[in-house]
Amino acid sequence: MHTAFSELSSLARGIERTSIGGQVASALGLSLVVRGLERTLGIGDHCTVQGANGPVLAEVVGIDDAGTRLLPFGTWDGVRTGDAVTVTHAATEVRPDAAWLGRVVDALGKPVDGRGHLPEGATARPVRAAPPPAFDRRQVGPRLDTQLKVMDSFVPLCRGQRMGVFAGSGVGKSTMMAMLARHAQPEVIVVGLVGERGREVQDFIRDDLGEEGLARSVVVVSTGDQPPLMRRQAAWTATAVAEHFRDEGKQVLLLLDSVTRFAMAQREIGLAGGEPPTSKGYPPTTFAELPRLMERSGPGKGTAGDITALYTVLMDGDDMDDPVADAVRGILDGHVILDRRIAERGRFPAVDILRSLSRMLPDCHGPEEYALYRAARQAAARYADMEELIRIGAYRKGSDPEVDAAIRLAPLLDTLLGQTKRDAMPSGETFARLAACLDEAGIKVQG
Question: Where do the H-state alpha helices sit in 346-391?
């Protein structure tokens, strides 16, 4: 009975309620200009273009003297000059429900996993919402035990923290995200795959996330071949779903892969809407949308839960000065940098512990844990300073006892931090092994 009512309710909400109509005036590239709706539609409103191949859902991205400028959620194939355009109450909201756990949906919240009807919750939630007021939020909570050795020890993640994972292509960002989804223990996981390769979607769900991970997850997918509006909305929808479960008092882990593709989609939308290109071709709205998206995650308020979020950032040519990477690094509460050289020598996750940073340190470590972290990091920094001299044989053993100890620690640390995607280790055991490595290298830990 409940399922039948839910299906009827979904159909009723899908009935288009039309108002004033307009007509297609011109189309160029992604952008279509409509006349007759200038006083009816505002930026961000949705309408339907009645093309020869069927109706096309569109969004208003600009208004000027020429008319109202639209971009499609599909393609303009079959649309001609003079075609009718009607204002609709389109799907700018989603209705998440506990029944969404274990399901895969698209950017509009429609099921794409072939498992039939997706029940809808009673409360509609806008996909584009304002972040909670700063003074309504709680503080970041205790450390989240991710069971990834390198993160628990060197780049700890706390409840309600927002972290960026920065890397070039093929260095292991998606695999690391899958490891977090598999081994961390939040109540709900929301995965946003924005602009992902179509081939890799099922690989991620079946091989990386697995049945156990999927059972407590909602996966929002928009593949790279889809229009920019769909790719952008996938990030908004994933965040809205996470907000729903957070407001129900649950601890939510939001994994968004990737922010760079979200920014690229916003770049296409902005340029098609007539915005001027600025840094690396990105229009100003790109850098305005990034904080609006990422500030929505974080600690909740009152009795609500928290959204602990990880956002991947694809760096062009491993360039940390890429404008998107630079902007994201300034917004988030820490960054994990994956290094291609570490990956090439076979250690995964390929986290560069010296360049990575969690802004929750030192408070999220206990005194003994922080002492171990500091001693290991200092030794790793000494080794990095002398690495070139050591490799060419210019450093003579015995010249500096601290460098000698750092040389002994380097291979031990490399072995400790390596981990396959199906391995897991509680943080307590990780710190015990780190202490053993320091002891074997002859490094004294100052308490």
Answer: 367-391
Residue 19 is predicted with a pLDDT of 52
Alpha-helical segments (H) within 147-189: 149-154, 173-183
CB 171 within 8 A of CB 338: yes
**Measured CA distances, 311 to 5, 191, 242, 411, 440 (Å):** 37, 10, 14, 30, 36
User: What is the rounded end-to-end Cα distance, in angstroms, of the chain?
Assistant: 63
Q: In this structure, are strands 103-105 and 93-94 parallel, antiparallel, or unpaired?
A: unpaired
285-294 residue pLDDT tens = 999 999 999 9
Contact call for residues 430 and 149 (beta carbons, < 8 A): yes
- Tokens found for residue 330: 């300034």
Q: Which stretches of 216-281 are DSSP H helices?
A: 228-247, 259-272
Taking the CA atoms of residue 269, residue 275, residue 278 and residue 281 in that order, the dihedral angle to the nearest 10 degrees is: 40
Q: Of 180-184, 306-310, 420-424, which has the strongest mean pLDDT?
A: 306-310
In angstroms, rounded to a whole number, what is the distance separating the alpha carbons of residues 48 and 56? 6
> Around Cβ 60, how many Cβ atoms within 10 Å?
21
* Separation CA 399–CA 138 (nearest Å): 51
Instruction: Tell me the percentage of the chain whose pLDDT exceeds 70.
Output: 94
Pairing of strands 31-35, 21-28: antiparallel
CA distance 300 to 295: 11
Question: What are φ and ψ of residue 51, in 5° steps?
Answer: -85, 170
Q: Across the chain, what does the average pLDDT equal?
A: 90
Is the link from the previous residue into 362 a cis peptide, with omega within 30 of 0? yes
